[in-house]
Design goal:
The structure is a single chain. The chain has 334 residues and is an alpha/beta fold. It folds into two domains: 134 residues, NAD(P)-binding Rossmann-like Domain (Rossmann fold); 187 residues, Dihydrodipicolinate Reductase, domain 2, CATH 3.30.360.10. Helices cover 30% and strands 23% of the residues. The chain contains eight helices and 13 strands. The strands form two sheets. It has a seven-stranded mixed sheet with strand order 3-4-2-1-5-6-7, sandwiched between helices. A hairpin with a 2-residue loop joins strand 3 and strand 4. Helix 3 runs parallel beside helix 5. It is globular. The protein binds NADPH dihydro-nicotinamide-adenine-dinucleotide phosphate (NDP) and aspartyl phosphate (PHD). Homodimer. It catalyses: L-aspartate 4-semialdehyde + phosphate + NADP(+) = 4-phospho-L-aspartate + NADPH + H(+). Catalyzes the NADPH-dependent formation of L-aspartate-semialdehyde (L-ASA) by the reductive dephosphorylation of L-aspartyl-4-phosphate. It is an enzyme of class 1 (oxidoreductase). Keywords: Amino-acid biosynthesis, Diaminopimelate biosynthesis, Lysine biosynthesis, Methionine biosynthesis, NADP, Oxidoreductase, Threonine biosynthesis.
Length: 334
């Protein structure tokens, strides 16, 4: 569109929504008009975009008239509730929730992984689970070169994955613990401060959590690998922001550490941080507020008798690459 797009951010006061507004500005996305939407609780509050103060409005079915692109990050139920109004208004919905990700008529996209899938959209494009997005930015270029067969993953997920309330809870709990005060967990199942919790999202009857199964199902969809094998343990850790993941990868073909480093060096959206002698490796503190996913600790898997296995470690700001940035990158491709 010559003069830019009318953009709505739905969930503009949340952990992801706030970053969406900043990302639209930082990437100089061609915004003609920006509408900021949240619940009635936030109506009348303000946010700043390109030096301009914008009032936050309560989201209603009427909110999408004249909107070209609606960036949704207000939870799955809200996405389901407002999808008909967005489609009726002729806008494209880019949805961060898990509501439509596995629907056949909804492309699930990480622009560095499967940008071509965007073309299939019928009004809704889904953003993947943040942990899956971070993993695939690093794994997809290795797959393209060597043919991925299997992933075994353990994750180290920040409090920010549970939104603004998750980050608040970690800060408050840390203070309470140091002050010897009682703690009452709300956003997480247990105390997170000075602890870790191997439980993210609800449990499935096979013992895996829904978060772990998203890593399997969403990876298969985005890589177009219906037989890809993925086993994962997702763990919440007391880091404020940026998820990390230890990944054991098996390929169809031999791959050396040097080959893998060269592939990662050239890949978009990922930065090689892999100099163990200099104590240089990915860490969440370094990944925070970075657009690129950091990838390092690349090793040949010594538990195998062949050269088809690699171990790698990634850290990525999932509020950005897993959500806000990914959504804006999708909008840039429309
Ligand atoms: N945090 C993350 O790392 C990631 C999050 N996501 C997804 O993004 C979505 C939002 O996550 P996050 O930003 O973390 O969550 P937050 O809890 O931080 O923010 C939720 C947002 O939704 C708004 N909202 C809640 N109820 C309504 C309503 N009835 N009508 C309109 N707006 C409403 C809130 O507005 P108000 O302030 O007025 O309540 C707020 O702006 C979720 O679907 C999540 O799964 C996806 C990938 C990563
Ligand atoms: N579940 C992720 C964040 C998230 O919102 O995921 P999803 O969009 O798949 O529900 C976490 O807690 O770290």
């Amino acid at each position: 569109m010559a003069n830019g797009f009318n953009v709505a951010v739905a969930g503009a006061t949340g952990a992801v929504g706030v970053e969406m507004i900043k990302t639209l500005e930082k990437r100089n996305f061609p915004v003609k008009n920006l509408k900021l939407l949240a619940s009635a609780r936030s109506a009348g509050k303000t946010a700043t975009f390109k030096g301009e103060t914008i009032k936050i409005e309560e989201m209603t079915e009427e909110s999408f008239k004249g909107v070209d692109i609606a960036l949704f990050s207000a939870g799955g139920d809200i996405s389901k509730q407002f999808r008909p109004a967005v489609v009726r208004a002729g806008a494209v919905m880019i949805d961060n929730s898990s509501a439509f990700r596995m629907d056949d008529d909804v492309p699930l996209v990480v622009p560095e992984v499967n940008p071509e899938d965007i073309k299939q959209h019928k009004g809704v494009i889904a953003n993947p689970n943040c942990t899956t997005a971070i993993m695939l930015v690093a794994v997809a270029p290795l797959h393209r070169a060597k043919g991925l067969r299997r992933i075994v993953a353990a994750t180290y997920q920040a409090a920010s994955g549970a939104g603004a309330k998750g980050m608040d809870e970690l800060l408050v709990q840390t203070r309470q613990l140091l002050d010897g005060q009682p703690i009452a967990p709300k956003a997480f199942a247990h105390r997170l401060a000075f602890n870790l919790i191997p439980h993210i999202d609800v449990f499935n009857e096979n013992g895996y959590t829904k978060e772990e199964l998203k890593m399997l199902n969403e990876s298969r969809k985005m890589l177009h690998l219906p037989n890809l094998l993925v086993s994962c343990t997702c763990v919440r850790i007391p880091v404020l922001r940026a998820h990390s993941e230890a990944l054991n990868l098996e390929f169809e073909n031999d791959i050396s550490v040097e080959e893998a480093r060269e592939i990662i060096r050239k890949a978009p959206g990922v930065q090689l941080v892999d100099d163990p002698a200099a104590k240089s490796y990915p860490m969440p503190a370094d990944a925070t507020e970075k657009y690129d996913v950091l990838c390092g600790r690349i090793r040949q898997d010594i538990s195998r008798n062949d050269k088809r296995g690699l171990d790698i470690f990634v850290s990525g700001d999932q509020v950005l690459k897993g959500a806000a940035l990914n959504a804006v990158q999708i909008a840039e491709l429309l």
